[in-house]
Amino acid sequence: MRNCLRFLALLAVLAPSGLEAQAERRFERFSTGDGLSQSNVRSILRDHRGFMWFGTDDGLNKYDGYHFVTFKRDPEDPGSLSDNYVTALMEDAQGRMWIGTRSGGLNALDTTSGRITRLLPDLGDPESLSHHWVTSLLEDRRGRLWVATAGGGLNLLERPAGGRPRFRRFTEDDGLVDNDVMAILEDDDGSLWLSTRRGLARFAPERKEFLSIHASDGLPAAEFEHSVATRSPRALFFGSIKGRSRCPRGPRFRSSARPR
């Protein structure tokens, strides 16, 4: 059922509207027989050059319209993918590909060389990624990379000049409603909306303040689905186990506006 909900949500985002578009719509199927590494596709991205990227349960796939190129973990190569179960994809403003995984944290792919840099959680390092399961990725209007995890809350990647990448963590200890963050979207004022397993959260990054929204505030359910979220010109939408929540875009942080 959950995979079906994700598929329907994806169709709602990608499908053109109108009777003419419906009449012209044509589906082309791709499977492992065509070169796809695995049939369970968890994430899809079209990059700035037009290439399609598919994250599956067993590898990352790049499609140029004719052939698939697969990226997988090689235990003997630290420059390979950290985990084959790909859960999130994002291209940043510099054209770098970011790959979230279920058990291997975050990966940064140089699409020119094909080399990957792994950013892994480390229990002994409080500036490392907070959890191995990455669920959602977002580059905000200021070019900052936010990383949502299932169990470690929200992470902000900081890349000081000449220094190693480090993460700033935001968890339940900081006011986040739940450490299982399922998706991230940015509002017009720069605040972030986070869907979780226990409600929605709105976060003001500059003030480091959270606003929590629960089922008692009108949500159809407090438990939200992994990566089922999208923006429209007027609202942000998040998919839960009992329907969708609509958050009007524009009201500034701590507005009285509530999801519907």
Protein architecture, described:
- By secondary structure, the chain is mainly beta.
- It folds into 2 domains: 41-120, Thrombin, subunit H (Beta Barrel); 126-250, YVTN repeat-like/Quinoprotein amine dehydrogenase (Methylamine Dehydrogenase, Chain H).
- 7% of the residues lie in helices and 39% in strands.
- The chain has 2 helices and 19 strands.
- A 4-stranded antiparallel beta sheet has the order 1-2-3-4, with no helix packed on it.
- Strand 2 (52-56) and strand 3 (59-63) form a beta hairpin.
- The model is unreliable at 1-15 (pLDDT under 50).
Task: Give a quick summary of the entry.
7% of the residues lie in helices and 39% in strands. It has 260 residues and is mainly β. The protein starts with a helix and ends in a 12-residue tail after the last strand.
Give me the side-by-side strand order of the main sheet. 1-2-3-4
Q: Helix/strand/pairing class, anyone?
A: mainly beta
CATH class of the largest domain: Mainly Beta
Classify the beta-strand content into a percent band.
35-45%
The shape, in one word, is: globular
The succession of helices and strands, N to C, reads: HHEEEEEEEEEEEEEEEEEEE
List unreliable stretches of 5+ residues: 1-15
CATH-defined topology of the largest domain: Methylamine Dehydrogenase, Chain H
Judging by the overall fold, what is the CATH architecture of the largest domain? Answer: 7 Propeller
User: CATH superfamily of the largest domain, called what?
Assistant: YVTN repeat-like/Quinoprotein amine dehydrogenase
Secondary structure: helix percent: under 10%
Average pLDDT: 88
Main sheet makeup = 4 strands, antiparallel
Tell me the Rg in angstroms: 18 Å
Distance N to C terminus: 23 Å
Helix run count: 2
Give the beta-strand count: 19
Number of domains: 2
